[in-house]
Amino acid sequence: MRLSTSLPVRLAGGLLIAAATVNGLAASVSRTTVAFRDRWSNAELGVLASLRLSQLPASPRDPSNAVDGSRAAAELGKQIFNDRRLSRNQAVSCATCHDPGKQFQDALPVSRGVGTGSRRAMPIVGSGHSPWLFWDGRKDSLWSQALGPLEDAVEHGGTRSGYAHLLQSHYRSDYEAIFGAMPDLAAVPPSAGPLGTPAEKEAWAAMDDKTRSNVNRVFANIGKLIAAYEKTLSHGESRFDRYVEALLSGNAAAQQVLSPQEVNGLRVFIGKGQCVTCHNGPLFTDHGFHNTGVPPRDPANPDRGRAAAVAKVQGDEFNCLGRFSDARPAQCQELRFMVTGDQSMLGAFKTPGLRGVALRPPYMHAGQFGSLEQVITHYMQAPPAAVGHTELAGAGNDHSQRQPIRLSAQDARDLALFLGTLSGPIVQGPH
Question: 121 is in which domain, residue-wise?
């Protein structure tokens, strides 16, 4: 969670600006002689305009990653992203959990690498726009996020020295063309790291500080290469975007792009469904953390979400302020001024973007719901949270400032249909 303007204020301000931007255009649409089936107020048009993909700026350059935006780095990062040798069993790559054929996810409730995790894979397309990564935001950059699974015991399960040796053996010339000469790894054990088996941790502790630093530098650069590739992935235009663009241009063909049911679902989304409160902007996310009372996968040990991640991101040696970052301290504003000790973060998880959402079930941080209909039902029922306090107004919740979400069966069905209109192609290119 960022120390910045509160969400309601940011949202309201953004919608007012969007409304003002399209006010004249909206007026011309309303004055057209064409009899539109789908009529929207100027305020509603302002909201719709703010959600268009065409309003998404280029992802911000990451000052902590000097090769962000490098075509050569992205090309090498793509090779590493798909290389199964970067795992303990030689069978897991980044693409295992982020399958290009499955919206860069794996369609599983929780991810499976060399073992089974406790959360599902997050969407990575468009993640270059987010200041925090993972469901709990325990990483503050895309490159630092890429490092986590590599040495996680149930994901790739490898070691830092092992990865450094692999790059030296198979990618040395490409690596050195980007970063300069690799350090001498002749005396570095083949498998050593701060995580792993007792023998691997012992081998890591036995290395001198300079050698460990050299290995860490190569390891960090692996993350920077993967991040450079991931930032080239973006969402293509969806039916929703075509509908809004046609609507704002006064094109009567707009009403042929979405069905009446999908249009009603859109009205529910920005209106009484309150979905746009958190799922706003061109990526349909506020990049924040929210407790919405999603039932824990393991009721005996409920996931504490963002509350447990604050100390992790602050103490991460690969964060923006760390020695392997390419940023100046003044460029690490999100990390320096992050909110700490906020009890509302207990049981809170990051808001996922909704583009392509209909193509990547199951849903929530641990795949608790198998369909969009189940997700919508959950928000309507608004059960109490197993840990912390839900933001939803509902049973047993005295902390919410929101109104209960009351939808008819038809509205709920139409809302699910609308979410299907947010699916478009995933494209690769400059960011």
Answer: 71-234
